[in-house]
Description:
Four copies of one chain form a homotetramer.
Chain A: H1 7-17, E1 28-34, E2 37-42, E3 49-50, E4 54-55, H2 57-76, E5 83-91, E6 100-109, E7 113-122, E8 130-137
Antiparallel strand pairs in A: 1-2, 2-6, 3-4, 5-8, 6-7, 7-8
Amino acid sequence: MAVVMTVEELERFFLAEFPQVFHSKSGLVIEAVWERGCRVRQAFRQVSVRPGGTISGPAMMALADFAMYVAVLAAIGLVPLAVTINLNINFLRRPAPRDLVAEARLLKLGKRLATGEITIWSLGETEPVAHATSTYSIPPGKLGGIIEP
Amino acid sequence: MAVVMTVEELERFFLAEFPQVFHSKSGLVIEAVWERGCRVRQAFRQVSVRPGGTISGPAMMALADFAMYVAVLAAIGLVPLAVTINLNINFLRRPAPRDLVAEARLLKLGKRLATGEITIWSLGETEPVAHATSTYSIPPGKLGGIIEP
Amino acid sequence: MAVVMTVEELERFFLAEFPQVFHSKSGLVIEAVWERGCRVRQAFRQVSVRPGGTISGPAMMALADFAMYVAVLAAIGLVPLAVTINLNINFLRRPAPRDLVAEARLLKLGKRLATGEITIWSLGETEPVAHATSTYSIPPGKLGGIIEP
Amino acid sequence: MAVVMTVEELERFFLAEFPQVFHSKSGLVIEAVWERGCRVRQAFRQVSVRPGGTISGPAMMALADFAMYVAVLAAIGLVPLAVTINLNINFLRRPAPRDLVAEARLLKLGKRLATGEITIWSLGETEPVAHATSTYSIPPGKLGGIIEP
């Protein structure tokens, strides 16, 4: 099994289909995709700061969800209607007020369900700030990707 | 056990401590608090719309996290350093492009940990769009609330 | 939507298909089923006791999983191949060395997925000892039940 | 940080404190412990078989919980009162009717909470059958291990 979409194709898809999430000022970057995984990055944003100089939980949840979706799309092609059915996140350490990096890894890629784990770090750190698992539902007949952006 | 903070006190706290989350244009409203529970509301926002006219998963996760935090504060008083350690969410139905209403209910309120469940509906619907459980860690010595906004 | 299986039909099914789980010495009882929910009971068993006189976590997980499966079967009929895809459990209080009672409630009953929540109490207590959520995958074409025990 | 308990010390502890779980016929083996991780094994047992020749979900949940507890004890010493507060498990593939192997890895080892992930395989397979995350609560003052079996 190989990657079926490149970083450039993924970025074009997100710019076209998810302009509220992925735009020139969102600070979201798809850094790399590989077989059953990816690395994405969220630039530090003042809007996500919380008391004590840390980054909000919802900002990390959104990044985990984005990383998982990128890993699914990179593996199966463009499926805008794939939807998250479950996300479980453990917050491990207070993130520093810096960029966050997330890596997603698919644990299972079935016909109807894809499950993966996502680890998030503050840029430059080795101990993770959060760890999530997530399951996506894949609509019937969409495997392989049939929507062109 | 009774509520130790009113809706007005909670709103003042959020306006002062979490201005990035809770402000005049955020569309977030604390509708009611009661013993070990609360109801909050997120006005519909264009930024949360996704393909097909639904509302994004991260918008629902953020609302679940907010509802849980309000329920914790209403029960134990102002603890800005209480932090989410776990959130698990199941997405059940595609929400309509309308306001979301969330109710949180504490299942346990211990000295160190508070666990609750949160149900989210599209305004006016009876079947939930999402259901979450979450655990907060309460810093030692903070029970009862010692920070005044 | 109504219940499609009675307690007696469910018990016959479990005795026939899951004799390792549900037998005369298992201490498991299906107490009641209703629209989208059920109540089951696990008699106290010495094998589940842990240091301090409490009941093991895995015994509560097994009971949560059983309650969810009963609620699914009561709603859709006999589907032996329905399988758990996710279970998340929060342990809230140490159970007393007594019977456990669990109630399951379906939050969603779709064609492919059923999601529910399960609350577990020590018999006679009002505060729960554990709370779980779980999702079952329903094999295509099985809705309504086509397997007769 | 290094391992503070050997496999032999762990086995003696479980034989003494958890005789219902870990005994000569339980089929449970602690294969190895290392810094912040361990590998355990559950021999195939007829009692865990389910329709279709697979292994029950609760058997996998129990193994995940055991693996996590071993990893915690190996890292912090004997803490019988450490308790699971959360376990989330995703079932990925039907296990074969064979031994199960589980590896646990601590993602965080704090003073009050330890969080880890656990992966389970059918013996000899490379694709996991289940993946779990779990959080343990560590009683105050126990870090380092003060209870001798």
